[in-house]
């Protein structure tokens, strides 16, 4: 527990350090308006991470989150733009679509036992291809027609300085946190990620937990797709492009182990905010897009190395405690 707290404190310290560095170089960075924009930009990653954290804790990975978000946004936008369907029906269909896409990933991984990396790499291309196939533009202007639904557009608005999507992200993170920490589903998720064989021997359904994790991720992608479409009032084939990188980065930086069995939503939130701050800061500093990728890669590598260091330290401490106990018994 102490090591987990230390790990989070280190991430928080890094977050504060980044804010100080960017604020010193760009005074406008440290402003209510800018922080409001940072939280808004972090929301899609945070929302999708609510499901993806479960996947990674089980020892899996999902490369298709950006494509699921894109297809959800495209279907949502098309139903509103070209068919003028009732908003409640559009939202319901979009969420069901996201959930189904996630469950397809889960079934292929859990029941057919295909490696999750291969499954989600394949569905990433399939879902992105479907997004492009459904894409419709104004032929004369080559622009994406805008959604004409005032109620839907309000989803992209804000109350005071806080965007609705930011509030939604925080609510979903709280719900995911509660599930992980206070329900059997959360306990089983950690058990499967820590030792799948032992979990099965205790009666935990490995397949159900895996399918649940991927299905939840799909649902979250559906939510993110809706909020993205409401913010832009349209959808493009590039919606969610690179989202899988951002989501996995935020979760890993937050202390989640890619080997499974370790991580939580508080760490994921910290990682999400850290990535958003870095993205905003280096953009405002005018750093070239080429160097931006390098910086992000270095941050992720540093986070992984830090995680390895903490794991090694924790293992050494555990061995020392065991040796002390053995010495006491021998005495």
Itemize the secondary structure elements and their pairings.
Blueprint: H1 2-25, H2 32-57, H3 65-82, H4 87-110, H5 116-134, H6 150-153, E1 158-159, E2 162-163, H7 164-182, H8 184-194, H9 196-201, H10 206-232, H11 243-253, H12 265-284, H13 289-330
Antiparallel strand pairs: 1-2
Helix pairs in contact: 1-12, 2-7, 2-10, 2-11, 2-12, 3-4, 3-5, 3-10, 4-5, 4-10, 7-8, 8-10, 11-12
Strand order of the largest sheet: 1-2
Residue windows where pLDDT falls under 50 for at least 5 positions: none
Rg over CA atoms: 21 Å
Class based on secondary structure composition and strand pairing: mainly alpha
Order of helical and strand elements: HHHHHHEEHHHHHHH
Number of helices: 13
Work out the helicity level.
Answer: over 70%
DSSP strand content: under 5%
Report what the structure shows.
This protein is mostly helical and 331 residues long. It contains 13 helices and 2 strands, in the order ααααααββααααααα. The chain has a two-stranded antiparallel ribbon. The mean pLDDT is 89.
